[in-house]
Amino acid sequence: MGSAVITARAAATFEPVGRSVATARAFVRDTLQGWGYNDVVDDAVVLTSELVTNAVIHAGTAADVLCLRSAEGVRVEVADHYPEREVPLQSSGIDFGSPDRENGRGLLLCAALASRWGVEYSPTRKHVWFQLDLPDRPVGIRSAGPVLPTSLLPVTDQRVRVAVVQIDSTGAISAWNEDAAHVFGHTAEQVAGKQFTDFVAWPHTPGTSTGIADALQLSRWEGSYGIRGADGRTIPVYASHLRVRDNDGDPSTVCLLVRDDERAVLQSPVRAPVSDVSSDNRTADPFEVFIGSPAPDDLDGLLQRTVERARDMLDADAAFLLLATDDETELEVRATTGLPSARQRFARVPVEAGTGRYGSARMPAVHEDLTAVPGAVPLLTDTGMRSVVTVPLKVEGRLTGSLGVAAENAGRYSNEEALRLQFAADRIALAVESARLGELERLRRGSLSFLVEASDLLAGTLDRDQTLALMAQMTVPTLATWCAVYTIADQSSDPYLSYVLHEDEDLIDGLKALLSKISPPDPVPTPGARVWSAPAEAGHRAAVSTSTRALAADAPLSMSTATRTTLATAQAVGGETVVLPLVARNRVIGMLTLGKPSDDHFRQEILELAEDLSRRAALALDNARLYSERMAISQSLQRSLLPPGLPDVPNVEIEVIYRAAGEGNEVGGDFYDVFPISDGAYGFAIGDVCGTGPEAAAVTGLARHALRLLAREGFGGPAVLERLNAAILDEGARSRFLTLLYGELWPREDGSALLKVVCAGHPLPLRLRQDGSVVPAAEPQPLLGVIDDLELYAEEVVLDPGDVLLCVTDGITERREGSRMLGDDGLAEVLSTCTGLTAGAVAARILRAVERFAAEPASDDMAILAMRIPEPQPQQS
């Protein structure tokens, strides 16, 4: 970072896998927020995302990310290990490429967003770095008024009482002077150590997020609020706050307070006429004369200060400021004072509202009595205001907004006041437009970062329910207070309420119940957000009905949980509700519904961001649907390849355990079957088709169904397998070789069982005797699906009471851990410990031993078939 002193650093390395991009973004975001660099977080995240993507995705190497902090800003370095890749120099004139390309956008973004950037090489890797400087944030600006004649000095009543209150870092009162005791009635002893907020009546002015606790943390603050006196009444005051620290470095806030009607004593700078000349013969800045110094550095603060000063300048009861949309057809309410503005913020009114010569916001307008022209100023409807003056804010002839002041009395304003207000509006129009453009740029960068992370999250899942949850969680509370997602199964189906989320979890159930009772929005494919009034109307009806019943029953509303829930739900949906279609592959697959609380409205920038998100979410939701449908079809087909169930074989215990390899597979290349052939005879088989997955499963189906059919036609074991071999070879290029153990079983009256077994290339069946010895129960013969002419033979085995026959596939015997393999000997050793166990216990012990043999999950299908001849139970005497 040049000669700047590095005050902190953080580094991390990310592997060359796709998820590393999101992890790197989170690392940079957390690091910069921890350093308090929120001003540059969004730009840093976007640039890091592009550069890490270039490293881990396009270059295919690990990415080293280093964050360095200094007093001037932050530098982020991203290094990959592929230095021979050509990188264009800043001054080479080489085209960075199109921003629409999938790769190569990192350097283009660096050039657009970073204060400085560059590329550095070392023998082993390449560094791309960028630096983001912090914006200037003045901690305090001194100002002085001009020398004035005595006649122009502020008028006060006798002695000026200036209350001096000092607040420590915890918000407690540490000093309270005599004037404070005189003005408010509390002595220093009564207030010492108590929280300052206990005495403050703070005006929660819509359009500003600064509370008393926030104001006490600022380096300087000036404005109006109230202090609760000893008699319980609130005393309006005008205050000037100054943040200081003592020799030990502990901060505190000194507050100077006067009665509100003496605000001129503290208010700075003095609002002198523009023509006044200061002592050094320099003309005062008209903007600072109107807005005050220091001017707010954020748009909302600037607009709020503007309406407050406009109200004071014309001694009005209310003031408001609206900003024009990009096409100048509508005005959006952005700041008010003296109005019920919580329900007006971000509301829109048409530019050409009203009638007559003052009907357009493009010209100054004076209304002496609004009752004579109802609706002339829609914002003031039902507010009690009678007279109003409005003036346009223009920059280079283009309408950028409208400023107005209003009074409760008729006839308060004339053209003279309109000219004064227009003069003030002309002074602030450029500053407001500059702040608005700055806000739009921050929103654009924040939106870009938001959409990058949203796309990454949505692409990371193919689960429908998880996709629905992600859609809702990304919109609440970032874009809306609550959200509901409707889905449409097909074109003939009605929309279904699939997911509901509110930023207050206690309201989710009530919101879901309300939405379930009203008809869903129409699935209109037209892009863009459209207003949906049904939730607000339904909530209002429910609230009125519930309140009426409660009052009729003479029951306090606060005592009824159901009533509180209904009223809270009505308030939650009482604001603006919009619906965005979820369109994927030219079909409406659902609707994304966003809502605000009582009488609140959406900003156009938020709606545009929500529309962009809805397009991404719709595609992700449709991909999840397609994946779920295909998985359901695949699993249904696979389940059809499994036996419907095991038959009850007299005097024989049978247990089967089956595990298919691969995610989502229920059937693979291994298969088993046990089925009745004729009276007293049963067939059993266990086999392994070459490979795994759907291709192997197709041969599995052929083999299992052919075995049953041929056996029940009366063919013996060798003939059954020879015909199956011919059927497999007839598949041609789709054929796969098959190892198969097939047997026929006849239970005997003496408690034993006769088996005739053919082992065609399959792991040999193992017989466990009662004495614990383990021996093969058959001889190996050629596998199926390789040669045409097979000559197979059956071998007879008699299982005595207590004997076990174990049949497995090679997924069991070939289980590996490094260079070790379980093998036939290892299997026989495990089986030898199963004497006296039931068939189910034998199969479970074999599987447990196989799973414990290696730490990694099995990569091959596994099947275990255990048959046991139970010992005869002693007869009861």
Would you mind describing this structure in some detail?
The protein is of the alpha+beta class and 877 residues long. It has 5 domains: 4-83 and 104-131, Heat Shock Protein 90 (2-Layer Sandwich), CATH 3.30.565; 161-263, 2-Layer Sandwich (Beta-Lactamase), CATH 3.30.450; 297-438, Beta-Lactamase (2-Layer Sandwich), CATH 3.30.450; 460-546 and 562-630, Beta-Lactamase, CATH 3.30.450; 641-867, PPM-type phosphatase domain (Phosphatase 2c, domain 1, 4-Layer Sandwich). Helix content is 31%, strand content 25%. A 6-stranded antiparallel β-sheet has the order 7-6-11-10-9-8. A hairpin with a 5-residue loop joins strand 26 and strand 27 (753-760). Helix 1 runs antiparallel to helix 2, helix 8 packs antiparallel against helix 9 and helix 10 packs antiparallel against helix 14. It is elongated. 36% of the residues are buried. Keywords: Hydrolase.
List keywords for this structure.
877 residues, alpha+beta, Heat Shock Protein 90, Beta-Lactamase, 5 domains, six-stranded antiparallel sheet, 19 helices
Number of domains: 5
Question: Mean of residue pLDDT?
Answer: 80
Question: Count of helices?
Answer: 19
Shape: elongated
Q: How far is the N terminus from the C terminus?
A: 97 Å
Question: What is the count of β-strands?
Answer: 34
Strand order, largest beta sheet: 7-6-11-10-9-8
Over the alpha carbons, how many angstroms does the gyration radius reach? 40 Å
- Identify the CATH homologous superfamily of the largest domain: PPM-type phosphatase domain
How many strands, what sense, and barrel or not for the largest sheet?
A: 6 strands, antiparallel
Domain PAS: 164-200
Organism: Streptomyces violaceoruber
GO molecular function: phosphatase activity
Protein name: PAS domain S-box protein
